[in-house]
Amino acid sequence: MKILHFADLKKKNKYQSLLRVGGPESSVLSLVRAQSKKHHIGIINTHIIYEEKNKKFESFKINFNFLNFFYKNPFVKILKDFGKPNYLIIHEIYNFNIFPIIILSRFYNIKILISPRGTFSKIALRINKLKKLIFFKMFLNFFLHFIHGFIALNPGEKSQINKLYKSKKIYIIPNGFEKKYSIKKKNSVMSLNNEIKIFYLGRFDFYIKGLDILLKEFETYLKKSKKRIVKLVFIGEHRKKFGFSSKEIIDNFNKLNPKNKILVKGPYYGKKKFIEISKLDMLIQPSRSEGMPNTVLEAMSIGLPILATKYTNIVDILKKNRCGWEINHKKNNISNFLLNLENSNKKKLYQYGLNGLRYSHKKLNIQKISNYCFLQSKIRNYKF
What we know:
The chain is α/β, with parallel strands linked by helices. Helix content is 38%, strand content 15%. It has a 7-stranded parallel beta sheet with strand order 3-2-1-4-5-6-7, with helices on both faces. It has a 6-stranded parallel beta sheet with strand order 10-9-8-11-12-13, sandwiched between helices. The radius of gyration is 22 Å and the shape is globular. It starts with a strand and ends in an 11-residue tail after the last helix.
């Protein structure tokens, strides 16, 4: 099968690869690498021609200029070099560059699939609601007439897409972790006297990621706890935007609370990221909106138990396979869990981590997902 991906990947600087802490960049590249072992794969990008050591897929760069895009038609060269693909998968929504790509692909009778990656959730749609409404009504809804269907990361996202576009085909193809980066966690059984290090891994977006609630609940925990053995570790990219500094908020929190119970680390990439998180005890994902967070899959792959909200679309897997717990944004929910954690059976925590490790290696390995979903001539839904 021949598959082209359109993903607007950006290289941050000469010292960092596209493998960031998480997000669509690493998800797309993980899928592409897995697919390339059995299929002919290419990536279309608008910023760089992506290069990596021993890559087995092709990379194309398109310079967009709407005044001459159709006149020069960059697809002619791509189709000549790559051949006509069975599918074009677009990993973007709010990007005007997808519209000429959709028209040209339809002209060449190429099946188009769009992967929204969480952008159709209720919370995501509420942010900049008026701009998104205009974008949908004036542009997106028209061009979606020309696509074959969507790719959802899980049944939860499939339901979100189906509410908006009932007539379109929806395939379920989840994110997965790359086995080459995963490592075996050491000293997984936590002793009663040691600190319990709970970590958040990802972008420091306080609202979408629910970090504002996490900090409030952690402050409540510190006020109520006598033992104070839980420590919170933030790992990821800090971004200062519009005068807002997540690092300053966390630093101020530490000034108000004794013994620096919050640490800020990273960002880390590739193997280094797995080495660092293997030193910790549990992942917390308090997000208000997600597609299917890579961080949860990565933590499970090395045997760490998970705390997550229903908005991560992965809670059903955690509860069914006894590898994590559901948390919510109600007052005292997270703080009460942390208080109960102080007296919990550490062997049970270890067993939950072990359950997650076994399940993730059986079901959430990106190579296994790719091999199951992408056959010689068709795509099929993944079975969790």
